């Protein structure tokens, strides 16, 4: 465990042959080894599931699973039937519901995560490294994965498990090691360390309850504030039936639901990222014509996307360039339309400081940041854009426990300024803890709205999301 940028992923890249160490040694089963590359590590029985996917979107599930290790006969002809049987068997172990013929690029993020896990299991590893494998999964899918991990341990497979979810680590780990600033700051047997002590080891300070300073029960209810965003009759046949909702000024509206419930599809249709057959979007009483994300941005609506790597960042650009992507015109000379470097540089420095982005400078390439710090850059980009409505799709995914509290406080500061926030999260406690109202989706539809998050429970949300008794 450790905060974003603590060195967890870098250490795992060394252990899996992706990067070479400057010093030190690696011993496997009593034998000191030197890993030449990831293939060498895999052949020795070390497999890694990276935090960022290494899949080919244009290939189907079977071809991704066997890429570089195709089953062939003596003359080099692919044994397609054999590969399909093995693929079906390993996906059956994971109890997933998508076809082995599915194009990976058309799968959801959680489904792609299971493809990555299946790919690692096909190698029959002796050591399995899992870097944030549950970050994209629902609570039920995470429990399913933890159960699979227990089965693998019973088969004498050693697992290194990186996670920001303390409850998962405390539930499944035998030994817990914490990194901070690239160094090991503590190693404990599970059962010998408390939740609070683990946090102190990670962040080097005490943390109050994540939501305690972000709730505003003393303020007027959302329904007493003016409607800022009004979405009516948004639909896209056959994937998205008709849905309508409102968001008030200064409100955080949480949207809960299981993976595939339609939350991301709906908000992408609102901002014009996906085509909608019909939608009536009104901002401050003025009807908008939104045909693209650029139209939404000009109207004052921003989206922090679920897929930060593919949709939220230009990975080859610098941190500063990414932070200015949605607001560069703000820092242009009013007559000559070129960027004023001092104003832009000051804005970038302030955003790096405010979000505590761990980077050597604003010129550092975004690709080289940790996943959590990349997510902070996406957030910073839209904070600089000065939006009236901010849609956040899984905004704290991959962000450590220390930074989450700061991000939550930031969201509340934004809503205190009158900004309307739509928060999509698979973490039900996060939805309840941060939201003024909670909307639940199932099968692409809005099935229930809780008018006050203070009265809602995790059980009630999950019941509506899964089609249980409450629904």
Can you give a write-up of this model?
This protein has 471 residues and is an alpha/beta fold. The protein has helices at residues 8-15, 38-43, 61-65, 80-94, 109-122, 139-154, 166-172, 195-203, 263-270, 293-299, 308-312, 319-323, 341-355, 371-384, 401-416, 428-434, 458-466; strands at 26-28, 31-33, 46-49, 127-131, 158-162, 175-180, 183-189, 227-236, 240-248, 252-256, 278-283, 286-287, 301-304, 389-393, 420-424, 437-442, 445-450. The strands form five sheets. Strands 13-14-15-10-16-17 form a six-stranded mixed sheet, with helices on both faces. A four-stranded antiparallel sheet has the order 9-8-11-12, with helices on one face. It has a three-stranded parallel sheet with strand order 3-4-5, with helices on both faces. Strand 8 (227-236) and strand 9 (240-248) form a beta hairpin. The model has no long low-confidence stretch (mean pLDDT 85).
| Estimated helix fraction | 25-40%
| Distance linking N and C termini | 38 Å
Unreliable runs, pLDDT <50, ≥5 residues? Answer: none
Shape annotation: globular
Strand content: 15-25%
What topology, given as strand order, has the largest sheet? Answer: 13-14-15-10-16-17
Helix/strand-derived category reads: alpha/beta
Radius of gyration: 23 Å
Overall pLDDT: 85
**Oligomerization category of the chains in this entry:** single chain
Tally of DSSP β-strands: 17
Number of helices: 17
Largest sheet: 6 strands, mixed
């Amino acid at each position: 465990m450790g905060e974003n940028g603590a060195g967890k992923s870098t250490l795992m890249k060394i252990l899996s042959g992706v990067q070479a160490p400057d010093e030190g040694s690696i011993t496997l089963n009593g034998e000191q080894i030197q890993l030449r590359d990831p293939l060498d590590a895999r052949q020795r029985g070390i497999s890694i599931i990276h935090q960022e996917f290494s899949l080919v979107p244009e290939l189907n599930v079977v071809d991704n699973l066997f890429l570089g290790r195709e089953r062939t006969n003596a003359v080099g002809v692919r044994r397609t039937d054999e590969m399909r049987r093995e693929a079906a068997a390993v996906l059956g172990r994971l109890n997933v519901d998508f076809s082995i013929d599915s194009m990976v690029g058309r799968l959801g993020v959680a489904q792609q995560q299971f493809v990555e896990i299946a790919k690692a299991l096909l190698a029959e590893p002796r050591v399995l490294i899992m870097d944030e494998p549950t970050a994209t999964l629902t609570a039920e899918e995470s429990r399913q994965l933890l159960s699979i991990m227990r089965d693998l341990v019973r088969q004498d497979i050693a697992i290194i498990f990186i996670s920001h979810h303390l409850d998962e680590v405390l539930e499944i780990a035998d030994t817990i090691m914490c990194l901070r600033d690239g160094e090991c700051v503590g190693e404990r047997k599970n059962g010998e360390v408390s939740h609070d002590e683990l946090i102190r080891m990670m962040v080097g300070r005490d943390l109050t309850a994540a939501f305690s300073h972000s709730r505003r029960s003393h303020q007027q209810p959302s329904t007493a504030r003016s409607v800022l965003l009004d979405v009516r009759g948004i639909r896209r046949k056959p994937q998205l039936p008709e849905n309508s909702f409102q968001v008030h000024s200064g409100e955080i509206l949480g949207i809960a639901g299981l993976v595939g419930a339609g939350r991301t599809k709906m908000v992408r249709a609102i901002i014009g990222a996906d085509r909608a057959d019909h939608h009536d979007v009104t901002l401050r009483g003025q009807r908008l014509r939104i045909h693209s994300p650029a139209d939404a941005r000009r109207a004052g609506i921003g989206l922090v996307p679920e897929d930060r790597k593919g949709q939220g960042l230009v990975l080859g650009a610098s941190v500063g360039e990414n932070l200015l992507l949605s607001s560069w015109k703000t820092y242009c000379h009013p007559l000559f339309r070129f960027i004023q470097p001092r104003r832009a540089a000051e804005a970038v420095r302030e955003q790096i400081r405010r979000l505590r982005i761990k980077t050597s400078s604003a010129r550092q390439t975004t690709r080289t940041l940790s996943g959590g710090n990349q997510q902070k850059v996406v957030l910073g980009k839209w904070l600089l854009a000065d939006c009236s409505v901010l849609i956040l799709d899984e905004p704290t995914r991959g962000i450590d426990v220390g930074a989450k509290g700061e991000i939550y406080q930031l969201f509340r500061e934004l809503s205190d300024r009158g900004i309307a926030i739509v928060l999509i999260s698979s973490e039900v406690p996060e939805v309840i803890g941060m939201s003024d109202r909670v909307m639940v989706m199932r099968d692409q539809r809005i099935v229930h709205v809780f008018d006050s998050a203070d009265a809602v429970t995790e059980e009630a949300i999950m019941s509506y999301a899964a089609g249980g008794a409450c629904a």
